[in-house]
Amino acid sequence: MSSLLVENPGWLTTVQDLGRPGFGALGVSPSGAADPVALQLGNLLVGNAAGAAALEMTLVGGRYLFPEGGVIALVGADFGATLNGQALEMWIPHAVRPGGTLELGLTRAGARCYLCIAGGIQVEQFLGSASTHLLSGLGGFAGRALRKGDVLQFGAPDQSIRRRKLSLRVREALKPRKCLRVTRGPQADWFSESATHDFFATTFRVSEDSDRLGLRLQCSSLALESPREMISEGVSLGAVQVTPSGQPIILFVEQQTAGGYPKIANVIGADLHSVGQLRPRDEITFAHISLEEARALWNAQQRLLNSGEELFA
Q1: pLDDT-derived band of residue 242, with 50, 70 and 90 as boundaries?
Q2: What is the pLDDT of residues 14-54, one digit of tens each?
Q3: Which is higher by pLDDT, 289 or 160?
Q4: What residue spans define the domains of the chain?
Q5: d(Cα 94, Cα 88) in Å, to the nearest integer?
Q6: Which residues contact 22 (CB under 8 A, 6 or more apart)?
Q7: In angstroms, what CA-CA distances link 191 with 13, 38, 47, 289?
Q8: What residues contact 90, with CB distance under 8 A and at least 6 apart?
């Protein structure tokens, strides 16, 4: 086992893998990487299983020391990383010599950068996952964001690491979108015709009051056809619920598992990684597609992620 010393944790850095889906009935949301596509690609670059645990950095990176060295890849948003003071290329594996220092600054584009390390971050699992669930304080490293002085362990690489990069075709196909594709929500017919039109015609701005629980969107009020109340029911990842004030919220990876607000739409699975790269003040739009189209897009994305050597240049 080798170690990683946190000298500066940035703004919000947590241990994440692909989460723990399937426990919503117990009140446990999936958590996991906000951009699971980037996480999987980063792990494949360093020879890990696609869902191995890595560090998710949000908006600001931090500084990390590798006393015994290691092999790393940075994927997702560009935080202007340097290794021992030298600029570090993203989307490619790098060897870090013993005593090497990785430093990352403010995001240049996107919200989250992933530090994937050959061998994977080693923490005790909770319900089959290493992911940190911040709201409940479960999983990850002590159930919290990293702090200065924390020491994390990572395993030995499963194989020799090849210096390769993702193909431009793959990066283009999987890059985050600002037009999020959605399917019809279970209470879509509760909204007036004008509100539904506005939902798809409006450019929304992501509020600064957004986090891993949900992204609040700034817009004019979306009105119901008539005042109505509903019994709380289970909610899905990516659901777009509308509060009584008419404000939409995209429920995200640490969402509550039940809610009583009507849901006008649901972000499709193939676009959830795009939600994870949205920053406060980013502007987005929505486009409606059918369930059949959403399923086809998801299957195509999964085939690409599982295409082996075809991913690499």
Answers
A1: very high
A2: 999 999 999 888 888 999 999 999 999 999 999 999 999 99
A3: 289
A4: 2-165, 179-308
A5: 8
A6: 30
A7: 38, 35, 48, 18
A8: 73, 74, 75, 78, 81
CA 258 to chain centre: 21
Fold of 179-308: Cyclophilin (2.40.100)
pLDDT tens for each residue of 249-267: 999 999 998 988 999 999 9
Global pTM exceeds 0.70: yes
By CB atoms closer than 10 A (0-12, 13-18, 19+), residue 215 is buried
Instruction: Give me 81's structure tokens.
Output: 């990383």
- pLDDT per residue as tens digits for the range 160-172: 777 888 998 999 9
Which one-letter amino acid corresponds to residue 214?
G
Joined tokens for residue 185: 């929500």
Dist. CA 164–CA 123, nearest whole Å: 28
Q: What is the pLDDT of residues 49-108, one digit of tens each?
A: 999 999 999 999 999 999 999 999 999 999 999 999 999 999 999 999 999 999 999 999
Q: Do 164 and 312 touch, CB atoms closer than 8 A?
A: yes
Q: How far apart are CA 275 and CA 284, in angstroms?
A: 10
Q: Which value, in Å, is the radius of gyration of the alpha carbons in the chain?
A: 20
Interatomic CA distance for residues 3 and 66, integer angstroms: 6
- Residue-wise DSSP of 251-263: E-TT--SEE-S-E
Query: Residue 299: its pLDDT value, please?
Result: 98
> Percentage helix, strand, coil, to 5, in the chain?
20, 35, 50
User: Cβ contacts of residue 41 below 8 Å, gap of 6+?
Assistant: 75, 91, 166, 170, 174, 305, 311
